[in-house]
Amino acid sequence: MELIYDYPRLEERLIIERLKARGADVVLTNVNDVPLIMGEGASDAALIRPVSMFKALYAAAARESSGIFTVNSSETIAICGDKILCLSRVAARGIRIPRTVVAVDSRSAEQAFKLMPKPVVDKPPIGSWGRLVALVGDERTWRTILEYRSLISSAQLKVHVLQQYVETGGRDVRTIVLGGEVLGAMERIGPPDDWRTNVALGGKTVQRKLDPELVEISIRCAEVVGGEFVAVDILVDRSGDYYVNELNGVPEFKGFMEATGIDVAAHLAGHVIDRTKR
Fold first, then answer.
1. Contact predicate 84/247, CB 8 Å
2. Where do the H-state alpha helices sit in the chain?
3. What is the spatial distance between Cα 95 and Cα 27, in angstroms, rounded to a whole number?
4. Alpha-carbon gap, residue 93 to 220, rounded angstroms
5. Domain architecture of the chain: domains with CATH
6. CA distance readout (Å), 237 to 169, 171, 201
7. pLDDT in tens, 134-191
């Protein structure tokens, strides 16, 4: 069993421990130090765990070139890592998402901003931890964001994804799906001085009880992206309606484990080992 990473976090250390506890021989590959040769692999399965989406994507693709089973696949990581591609797949299956408008240029972004009720959420199609995500309520702030984003060298970061602001009371829900089953759910509660709920920005986590609709939405989302191990972020409005916001193809789960008491690393290790025996 190979674990591919770039920066070892608590999650990776736990996965290694749980794999070894199940008797697996673990090969560690830091992609920052070790090149990945197409058509060659060190094991029969690879857990793809780089923090960088692009490093994860290319690591999965390199291992898939030799027929190795990867969690997740390069296709899943690519779709989950791009909000436009991901929400397109989700919406096409009839799963509710916030009203979303894509603008690939500052001129079309200006038109999109006029179309949307205020405040509006603006974000680039790539990125995590709430970076470059803004809640915009007035023209002056919008002009500043447009100017700032236009100066970024990355073409993808110049693209605007404008979304309906769903009033959630400063909370959202994250579920984790593994092998077609929902492990559990947690609520992320944003800090008092920020509307975003990301744990990386100071959000707190508590366990949330699963209900049939939440389970169904989560499983359908994982199926849409072909994900073996996927986190699903869901907004819940004041009426209790669910809106799928994002999917993550390389889920962090420290906060999830703390909130739910579920040993995600043990479940993941067991699932991958069982899959390789089929």
1. no
2. 10-21, 53-64, 74-81, 83-92, 106-115, 139-150, 212-224, 254-260, 264-277
3. 39
4. 8
5. 2-79 (3.40.50.20), 100-164 (3.30.1490.20), 167-263 (3.30.470.20)
6. 8, 9, 21
7. 999 999 999 999 999 999 999 999 999 999 999 998 899 999 999 999 999 999 988 7
Edge-first strand listing for the sheet containing 120-123? 100-103, 160-164, 120-123, 134-136
- CA–chain centroid gap for 265, Å, is 17
Contacts of 102 (CB under 8 A, 6+ apart): 84, 112, 125, 159, 160, 161, 162
Relative orientation angle of helices 74-81 and 53-64, to the nearest 10 degrees: 160
User: Do the Cβ atoms of 14 and 49 come closer than 8 Å?
Assistant: no
pTM over 0.90: yes
Q: What is the pLDDT of residues 22-32, one digit of tens each?
A: 999 999 999 99
**CA-CA distances (angstroms) from residue 103 to 69, 90, 106, 109, 233?**
36, 19, 7, 5, 23
| Number of other residues whose CB lies within 10 A of the CB of residue 235 | 23
CA distance 258 to 217: 23
Q: Kindly give, in sequence order, each residue whose CB lies less than 8 Å from that of residue 130, ignoring residues fewer than 6 positions away.
A: 196, 198, 200, 201
Largest CA distance in the chain: 59
The SS3 assignment for 141 reads helix
CA-to-CA distance for 161 and 18, rounded, in angstroms? 39
